[in-house]
Amino acid sequence: MSASRSNRWYLSTAPILRALVHLCVPMAAAMIVGAVYNVINAGFIGSQHDTALLAAITFGTPLLGLVMAIGGVFGVGGGALISRLFGAAEHDPGQAAGIKHVSSFAVWGSVIAGVVVGGAGLALLHPLVTLLGADTAAVTATREYVAVMLAFVPVLAAAFCLEQIVRAEGAARQAMNGLILSTIANVVFDVVLILFFHWGVAGAALGTGLANLITVAYFAYWLQRNSEHVSLAPRWFTLRADVLKPVFGVGVGELLQFAFMIVTVLVLNNLAAGYGDGPLAAMGVAVRIAQVPEFLIMGVTLGVLPLLAYAYGKGDRARLNAALRASAITVGGVMLVLGGSVFVFREQVLTAFSGDQAVLAIGVTILVAQLVATVANGFAGLITSLFQATGRARPAIVMSMAQGVLFIPIVLLGNSLFGLPGIIWALTVTEGLVFLIGVGMWLAARASIDRGLAEGSPERAEAVLEGAEA
Fold first, then answer.
1. Are 157 and 255 in contact (CB under 8 A)?
2. Which of 14, 422, 452, 461 is the most buried (most CB within 10 A)?
């Protein structure tokens, strides 16, 4: 059995628990490795004993959101459609013919969008750094970090997009290999560029860009050698409506989510900066530590998306419901065990990254708030994955917009009434409200999803990519 057919067996007929292990464990492992790298990266920068450098990375965080937004538009939207088409092909093999068009459009679309956004950012570098909220002490380091990251936006976006396409085939282990390869390369580059050449945050950004270039090469090579239907050849690139509509229908939700995340971080940074570099540095460290359980949960919610999409495209109601139920139990269990462990040892973990008592005191509070928010965010993410997998653009977009729309007034009100604690807990309150909104929309959409399953999914009827052979 070829690697491609073996991976699709997990999507199609493998026992649910075995399928979840195959899809989610590698994804979660890769996410954890990435989260651990973020902590190590902060350690490399922290070894330079300059708080402004740590602050610069925090100010530059929205750029990573920008990259994920670009890659997510094409990668998540394209990947979900590819998985649905694979599922639909079980009843109609002709459905697989359009996958070449979808994959080529997704990859090259992400590259082109990355070039445009990265170029515009470099042309407007000075006002962009000011917009990010960098103060006088951190402005030079932030400018260096941002400039290098912008130069690599096309590469970073393509890497994120290709990862989604590889996962759409059910090849979770290969997606994990690519992400781990990127992390290992990143650590090596950090040692050379930061510790040896002393290039500081510019070296950190350059290392990230080069490591993702290696990842792009790995994913492209694997797809070329192993995928029966996915193609990255430019000749398959198309702007047909039956490709653009389903890809952007789901992908625009990703764009809005990360766009609002950028706004959220900008507002947060600017408000926190008013309390000095100490709280800002503590926020950067605490957020990175909290990302360990958060990324593990994201590994589950993102890892299960191809399984949900395949089951929906196939019209398999029992498999879709079983996958959703098992994923929810897994998310709850992970948060209880890992999130609880981080909470219990929060002070010891923070001490490893800073000896400043002021930073430690505020860092503990931030870490607790982040962990509580992660619980709600995990279940909300699973609901969003269900909407994306079933091609329901409107509720997916609402979920993506809800956090940003709610967070800004909540954080402004929190800052006005409670000062710094109000800023810290604003995200926690917001995530809880987003989860409640998601539950309401899920209950409202259940009948529609059931009809789609019974009829054989709207996408198989409307987005089969008629004329794909042409």
1. no
2. 452
How long is the chain?
Answer: 470
Assess whether pLDDT exceeds 50 at residue 464. Answer: no
Dump pLDDT digits (tens) for 267-294.
776 777 677 666 767 776 777 677 777 7
pLDDT for residue 84 is more than 80: yes
Q: Pick from 295, 339, 340, 303: which is nearest to 324 by CA?
A: 303
- For residues 23 and 85, give the distance between their C-alpha atoms in angstroms, rounded to a whole number: 18
Q: Measured between alpha carbons, how far is 200 from 190 in angstroms, rounded to an integer? A: 9
In a domain, 427, yes or no: yes
3-state helix, strand, coil in the chain (%, to 5): 85, 0, 15
Give 352's DSSP letter.
Answer: T
CB contact at 8 A, 327 and 300: yes
Residue 385 and residue 132: Cα distance in Å, rounded?
A: 30
Hey, is 7 helix, strand or coil?
helix
> Is 467 part of any domain?
no
pLDDT of residue 458: 42
Amino acid at 262: I
CA-based nearest residue to 35, from 436, 408, 349, 308 = 349
Rounded to 5°, the CA angle 374-285-128 comes to 95
- What is the rounded distance in angstroms from the CA atom of residue 239 to the CA atom of residue 244? 6
Triad 208, 214, 215: Cα angle to 5° = 85
Cα distance between residue 96 and residue 40, in whole Å = 42
Question: 460 vs 63, which has greater pLDDT?
Answer: 63
Flag whether 469 is in a domain.
no
Label residue 217 exposed, middle or buried (CB < 10 Å: 0-12, 13-18, 19+).
middle
CA–CA distance, 185 with 218 (Å, rounded to integer):
12
**Nearest in space to 161 (alpha carbons), one of 98, 99, 224, 215:** 215
Q: Which long-range contacts (CB under 8 A, 24 or more apart) does 128-132 make?
A: 129/59, 131/266, 132/59, 132/60, 132/62, 132/266, 132/269
276 located within any domain? yes
Single pTM value for the model: 0.76
Please give the biggest Cα pair distance in the chain: 66
DSSP assignment of 293-306 equals HHHHHHHHHHHTHH
Domain residue limits at 294: 3-462
Alpha-helix residue ranges (DSSP H) falling in 304-419 = 305-314, 317-334, 340-344, 346-351, 357-389, 393-418
